[in-house]
Amino acid sequence: RLGNFIGKGGSRLMLQCDVIKVIEEFAPLDTQMSYDHCGLKTGNTNKELTGILICLDLSPEIIAEAVGKNCNLIIEHHPSVWSAWTMIDTKYPKVNALIDATNRGITVYSAHTNIDFAKDGLNDYFAKQIGLNNVKICEEGRIGTLAKETDLFEYADFIGKTIGEKNVKVISGDKKTVKKVACINGAGGGDEETLIRFATETDVFVTSEVKYNVARLSKDLGYAIIEVGHFTSEKGFMSLISGLLKSKIPGVRVFETECAQNPYE
What we know:
Elements: E1 5-6, E2 12-13, H1 16-26, E3 39-42, E4 52-55, H2 60-68, E5 73-76, H3 93-103, E6 107-110, H4 113-117, H5 122-129, E7 133-138, E8 141-151, H6 152-163, E9 169-171, E10 177-183, H7 192-201, E11 204-208, H8 212-221, E12 224-228, H9 230-234, H10 236-248, E13 254-256
Parallel strand pairs: 4-5, 4-13, 5-6, 10-11, 11-12
Antiparallel strand pairs: 1-2, 3-6, 7-8, 8-10, 9-12
Helix pairs in contact: 2-3, 7-8
């Protein structure tokens, strides 16, 4: 026995559902976006917990790592089951990973936009990474200030080094320096109305997956965007969830994956 215990004085063995309860108290499922698919993907959460592996994306390599670390609960960020399946098509590695997890008795659970939007969740984690202070919630994102007025391109370089992004893109605006910053982790660059709202309040918007029409609008408005990769803006998920679980369940066996891979590298 690995001895994951919970309750007063470690009175009973820990179940997978005990871990999920901690996550859902921090980020309730009903706070996810309407299009999202957070929650259980496969498995039985009433089983005794052996260990937890945290990842961004499920893959066959993640399953092998979970087996090697004796973890029977995987917490993923991006849901491995997104829409209703009409077939089990094994040409997709993710489908094979889910089948393998099911056969091995490994539970897969997704915490996605509920974690993004939670207080002290992934948006807040990202905001701290990129140097923001006095952070406030602004619908799907966050707004904060830098410690001092900073050259736009120097700030972009700082972000790239801080989050490990090799391909930072900058749409320069009318302002050469920035202080007030908006940010959304992940695919936050797809909505024109969001951009217009941020442009009225801040000097620059930091996000990923900026669509062409949004980039064009930004240029026309004279408003700056710093675009980073989806992966690098969200890889903090693993540290965030690991820290949450360790603080709420002392002694729990929890691992951040060693197989996380930026698809652009």
